[in-house]
Amino acid sequence: MSNETYASSTRIFKELLDEIGKVIVGQHEAVEQMMIAILCNSHALVESNPGLAKTLTISTISKALDLKFNRIQCTPDLMPSDITGTYIIEDIGGKKQFRFEPGPVFANIVLADEINRASPKTQSALLEAMQEKQVTVGNKTYPLDKPFFILATQNPIEMEGTYPLPEAQLDRFLLKILMDYPTFEDENEIVNRYTRNIIPTVKSVVSKTEVLELQKLTRDVPIAEDIKTRAIKIVGATRGKSEKIEYGASPRASIGLILAAKARALMKGRNYVSKEDIDAMAYPVLRHRVILTFESERKGMTTDQVIADILKTAK
Amino acid sequence: MDELMEKILKLQSDYFKRKQLLLILDLISIFSIFYAIFIILSAGFFLDKFFNDPRIPTGIILPIIAFIIAIMGAFFLHRNDRKIKFNFLVEGKYPELKEKLRTAYDNISESNVIVDSLKSLVLNGLAIVSSSTLIQGSVVVTKIILVIIFISAATIISLNPDKYSIPPDTVANNFKNLTGIGNENTNLSIGDINSRLENTENVGQNGSGNIFGKPKIASIEGKNIDLTLYSGQDTGFEVRDTSQASNQFIKSAAFPVDVLGSNVSDGGYSTLMQKTESEKQLINQYAVKRSTI
């Protein structure tokens, strides 16, 4: 099965991206990175201004992958049980029984919209599901369906009344994906597509089984020792005393960087990890794990600029 | 063993054999060059003078020194050979194998559908790789030609040393002119230097040495003048131990130098008297200057 999936992986990714491209105009990098997060069996955090098709992108991906998709709109009054599910009393044959009603987290792809608006308690419930791939309600544990992928979104503006995710929780997201405004040509195309009667739709091009196979294949992609060493050195360079960085990335970032590079290589149709994959994935893997010093922030530096400097000096 | 590993090891072995050949060629070249230089510069003569051990003939020492230099030089030139990462070298020459070869090599023990496909890809890519492309044949040929030239030259020179070697005196003078070491002895041969050096042991005993243990020659208007002051009986000069108390020092009555000689000296004084007025004056100044020290 792996052989067949691998042989057709290049075709699968091409068809997948073409299909998603029918609905999503531009945002190739963001779509690619979301796919990488899914292939790594991990989660992603998306940050963008409102109206940049975050929800549409992830729902389109789920349709193209033939996966169950749920959306949670996070608000300060959202309770953990609203996400995980709860026991309800049901009348069955005249007897009242408790029955577990699964929450929206019981899906393959979950969009946690504006996660920073949910209370820390609710965020924790969601993060347990992310990490353990299971939900505990009462004293019973329910495993989540595979594949399981959470795409959480954050709005960089309107920070009032939000609960910013603590660093430890941010670390659990494999990637932090930035979505930028489209170019003029892309926006023109968006306007053309979405101002007609026919709204573009996608069809499923990959089965759930194939997605799981692709996740296994991702881990099989080989990496050379020197490239692996470079990846670890890049992550290590974020640590220690620095004028620019207050706190660096954890070893989880090293795992994430190599895994993400493997997924990217697979998506690009390569049977080995290239230095280029490491460099490309260093930004989404590290940008939410690196905390800049006050001095750097005062100078208007971004984490991406600091990562770019690290990549320049990394050997 | 894995087919890919076998292929890589074979290529690696061929490559390092060629590198060893180049090392040997360099060693021979350096040896030939230095051996020829030693003969041309009459190194054997100098070696005899300074290293006069009858147990070891010069004829053996010179080639040994040249060989030691050759070993050091060859290993210096090839010092980075062992540090060469073969896979990176191949990747550099064959860009289509870039990152693939090292990945396949590093994951040689792995086996899954992706690694196997990579190994197969690399194995096909290595089919066109040969050690001759990694070290160009022209480099080897050039080095062989150079070795032949250097060996021939060294052989010719060593068979006719009288024809090609530079006389030791010329070498010594040129060396001194170049380095500035021992300029005061420029008109002396090596033999002279040695005899004078030997005489310093007899200073003040039989009058044959000079008082300071070193010959003094001044060059005045292109003419070398021997400033040596010989000691001995009735010469007007007395060698004194510098440790003697200063209040015991009495100025020699021999000044000025135009006093008549007693003709009983060992020849030093009469030699002095035969000198020209300007030379006498110079010697006088020198003696006065020395006497005040």
Q: What's the total helix number of chain A?
A: 13
Largest interface: A-B, 18 and 16 residues
Helix content of chain A: 40-55%
Number of domains of chain A: 2
Computed structural class of chain A: alpha/beta
Number of strands of chain B: 2
Task: Characterise the protein shown here.
The complex is a heterodimer of chains A (315) and B (293). Chain A is α/β, with parallel strands linked by helices and 315 residues long. Chain A contains 13 helices and 11 strands. Chain A has helices at 2-23, 28-39, 54-64, 80-84, 120-132, 167-170, 184-193, 208-220, 225-236, 251-267, 275-286, 294-298, 303-313; strands at residues 44-48, 69-73, 85-92, 95-102, 109-113, 134-137, 140-143, 149-154, 175-179, 245-247, 291-292. Chain A has a 5-stranded parallel sheet. In chain A, helix 1 runs antiparallel to helix 3 (54-64), helix 2 (28-39) crosses helix 10 and helix 10 packs across helix 11 (275-286). Chain A is globular, with a radius of gyration of 20 Å. The model of chain A has no long low-confidence stretch (mean pLDDT 87). The longest helix of chain B has 38 residues, at 3-40. Chain B has 293 residues and is mainly alpha-helical. Chain B folds into 2 domains: 3-164, no CATH class; 173-291, no CATH class. Chain B has a two-stranded antiparallel ribbon. Chain A binds chain B through residues 2-3, 6, 217, 220-227, 266, 271-275, and chain B through 99-100, 102-107, 110, 112-115, 117-118, 121.
